[in-house]
Design a protein that fits this description.
- InterPro entries: HAMP_dom (IPR003660), HATPase_C_sf (IPR036890), HATPase_dom (IPR003594), His_kinase_dom (IPR005467), HisK_dim/P_dom (IPR003661), HisK_dim/P_sf (IPR036097), Sig_transdc_His_kin-like_C (IPR004358), TCS_sensor_his_kinase (IPR050428).
- The protein folds into three domains: about 5-170, no CATH class; about 235-320, Signal transduction histidine kinase, dimerisation/phosphotransfer (DHp) domain (Helix Hairpins, Orthogonal Bundle); about 330-480, 2-Layer Sandwich (Heat Shock Protein 90), CATH 3.30.565.10.
- Helices cover about 55% and strands about 15% of the residues.
- It has helices spanning about 5-60, 70-80, 90-95, 110-115, 170-220, 235-285, 295-320, 335-350, 370-390, 420, 435-440, 445-455, and strands at about 125-130, 135, 145-155, 155-165, 330, 355-360, 365-370, 395-400, 405-415, 460-465, 470-480.
- Helix 1 (about 5-60) packs antiparallel against helix 5, helix 6 runs antiparallel to helix 7 (about 295-320) and helix 9 (about 370-390) runs antiparallel to helix 12 (about 445-455).
- The longest helix has about 60 residues, at about 5-60.
- It is rod-shaped.
């Protein structure tokens, strides 16, 4: 079953918290158990030392074990006095042993009791041996399991305190304290898990809300609603994602608008010459216009204008897709520019346009370029200046280098282009004055093609005001080092 992002976030936060709480619980319990065991063992060592001191002092006072041997009541008293932290009365198993032989200790219980009990009292594990290791209080069958502690008087070993293996006993209050602590830890862990679940739910809702909003916006974007925008509510990654989404939506909206303008402009540009052709053909068909050479020339002019438009559209679509073929060789672009200028010179002279050539390069220049595409670039720009510069004006072509780049400037005289419109000159179908453009046979595609050609040569093209009163087109191309 599909799980939403909120459920996944909730489960992730909750599982992480469970692992942390469980780890802290078991670590705390282990640490407490370890500390408690160390405390019990410390008390055990203290009791053993106290018992050793008591027995050694008893021997030093009486000079022998005769007063203690066989006196189980005194032996039990010494055992109980070794625990300075509590005062206990003899247990039933102690009084039971008074009826057994004088040397037997502890009471006649199964030896497995000492190993099976979790807490074994020190009194049930202690035995007293003389210096020759004979039994004063003990059992012969348990001697092999004893750990012996020497008893000294006047720096001489006068006996041994033997201890059977087993975990030391503990006070009932300590056990109750440990149980309360374990219960408290369990309740604390349960409370932490509950609070973590609430916090995880809140975080999942808080973090999942913008993600869910983005998913809904993405669906609207997928069906063509490019006006959708997301609110930017933070400066973190989610906020940056919202900003990126808005920029993407704006770019798609702009692309969609450009596509619609593109279709509308193509339809308009194709419809105009077709309408003219249709009108002229209908006039010829109806006999309104005679079929003569002038009519044929007019039809041919409209067909050529339509052919130029379709050819420009084809070239622009190829350049947009990067499908224009480029056969780059090492060449000097100045030669190609001079050749194109020379080819168009008769038309410049016919329009009484003065052409000035300025070559300011101090050394030979060379770059990798396609000579045919460069010729297409230069011819488009020169033709624009030829068509849109007033008769009797000027065109100045300047070439100079900056070390790593070659700059070519084509500056013409009036009319100029307003600053607000210069940045849009390289957009397809954009014309400063549509009627004039159609009068000169242009559809606003030439500069768009020029921009793509320059970009294919890793260069830049821009439009600037001309000091001659018109427009300056600047081309920057990287030179071959």
């Amino acid at each position: 079953m599909h799980k939403s992002i909120r459920v996944k976030l909730f489960l992730t936060f909750l599982l992480t918290t469970l692992l942390v709480v469980a780890g802290m619980y078991f670590f705390t319990r282990w640490s407490l158990d370890r500390g408690f065991n160390e405390l019990v063992e410390s008390r055990q060592r203290e009791r053993v030392e106290n018992l050793i001191d008591s027995l050694s002092e008893h021997y030093a006072t009486h000079g022998s074990w005769e007063g203690l041997a066989g006196n189980k009541r005194l032996w039990i008293k010494l055992l109980l006095q070794s625990d300075s932290r509590r005062h206990r009365q003899p247990q039933a198993w102690m009084t039971q042993d008074l009826s057994e032989p004088a040397t037997l200790w502890p009471p006649d219980l199964d030896a497995g009791v000492y190993r099976n009990r979790r807490w074994v009292p020190l009194e049930m594990r202690a035995m007293l041996l003389a210096a020759d290791r004979s039994i004063i209080f003990g059992r012969q069958e348990l001697l092999a399991e004893l750990t012996l502690h020497p008893l000294k008087a006047d720096d001489k070993i006068v006996g041994f305190l033997g201890l059977l293996p087993g975990r030391p006993d503990n006070q009932l209050g300590d056990l109750r304290f440990m149980q309360r602590q374990m219960q408290a830890f369990a309740w604390i862990a349960l409370l932490m898990v509950t609070l973590s679940a609430v916090l995880a739910l809140l975080l999942a809702y808080t973090l999942g809300k913008p993600v869910k909003r983005m998913a809904a916006a993405a669906k609207r974007l997928a069906v063509g609603d490019y006006a959708i925008r997301l609110p930017v509510e933070s400066r973190d990654e989610l906020g940056q994602l919202a900003r990126d989404f808005n920029e993407m939506a704006a770019a798609l909206e702009q692309s969609e608008q450009a596509r619609r303008r593109w279709v509308a402009d193509i339809s308009h540009e194709l419809r105009t010459p077709l309408a003219v052709l249709r009108g002229e053909l209908e006039a010829l068909q109806d006999g309104i216009r005679p079929m003569n050479a002038e009519a044929v020339d007019s039809l041919l002019t409209d067909v050529l204008r339509l052919n130029r438009l379709t050819d420009d559209l084809y070239q622009l679509s190829l350049s947009d897709q990067g499908a224009l073929s480029y056969r780059k060789i090492l060449l000097d672009p100045r030669e190609a520019l001079k050749a194109d200028l020379a080819a168009l010179m008769p038309q410049f002279q016919q329009k009484r346009l003065q052409v000035e050539w300025r070559d300011q390069c101090k050394a030979d220049v060379a770059l990798y370029a396609d000579p045919d595409r460069l010729a297409q670039l230069f011819r488009n720009l020169l033709t624009n200046s030829l068509n849109y510069t007033d008769s009797g004006g000027r065109l100045r072509v300047t070439v100079f280098s900056t070390g790593a780049s070659l700059l070519i400037e084509l500056a013409d005289s009036a009319p100029g282009v307003a600053e607000s419109e210069r940045a849009q000159l390289f957009e397809r179908f954009y014309r400063v004055e549509g009627s004039r453009s159609r009068h000169h046979g242009g559809a606003g595609l030439g500069l768009a093609i020029c921009r793509n050609i320059v970009a294919a040569h890793n260069g830049n093209i821009s439009a600037l005001p001309s000091e001659l009163g018109g427009l300056t087109i600047r081309i920057e191309l990287p030179l071959q080092g």
